[in-house]
Write a structure and sequence with these properties.
Elements lengths: L15 E5 L2 E4 H23 L6 H27 L1 H6 L8 E2 L2 E2 L7 H18 L4 H26 L6 E2 L20 E2 L2 H20 L9 H16 L19 H30 L1
Antiparallel strand pairs: 1-2, 3-4, 5-6
Helix pairs in contact: 1-5, 2-4, 4-5, 5-6, 5-7, 6-7, 7-8
Amino acid sequence: MDLSWWNLIPTYFDGTAFTLGSFPVRWYGIMYIFAFVTGYLTLTHINKKENLGYTKEQFDSLFTWIIAGIIIGARLGYVFFYKADYYLANPTEILIPMSNGHFVGISGMSYHGGLILGTVFTIIGIRRNKMDLWKTLNLCFLLAPLAYTWGRWGNFINGELFGEVTTSPIGMWFPRAKDSLVSPPVLHHPSQLYEMLFEGVLLFVALYNLRRIPALHDKMPCLYLIGYGTARFFIEFFRMPDAHIGRVDLFGMSRGQTLCSLMILTGLIWLIVLIVKQKKAAKTT
């Protein structure tokens, strides 16, 4: 089986951007910085363009809360959603990247955990900085797909979270796959790129345009939950499930599909409640 340049793209990266002494600095960690900078710059641009009146000090404080919530939530989400038994037996490894006296790094971050605690911390940051809660929260959810795009690109560079085996030409050879040394070469779906495109770029474009519709302008959180949850649910069919969990949740779903189902349901209920409340308010005026 002859592999094209496309199939071999993952071999061009090893995940390490540079080293500081003996500690490798991973591209995935740098992508978090890119994500937060992208969100910050875009939000300040909208603030200026739409004359929202927020100050730099308010944004600086708000993003401190957002960053803390996402990072802590993503870590704790992975611990409790994906490896609760292991980390309950090894609690020090939740936040301390050492095992048997060796530096192993903090591996394992959950998008859904970051979303939950990130939202909570965002609301706290908005209130502490005396910003309009719903207007600011709408903007944060509008920008979330842009920031998320960087994270999935980081996963791709790391050669992790790749997809199921495929015979399609779009498949890629991932050195970190357990079957990477099999002959003939085994290809996997580059599901990180699927997520980057559909849950990131295209979702942002969709939300940006839906925001122009008056009836949907202030419903970005609901639409984001529905949009992301739907895209991720279907991409999970192409993504390799966690080896220690598999597809054993309700109806044979992966853990990611289970969490996305809850996202979609939450978004739909939230959207319906908002629409009903707005219709009642319109009747009383």
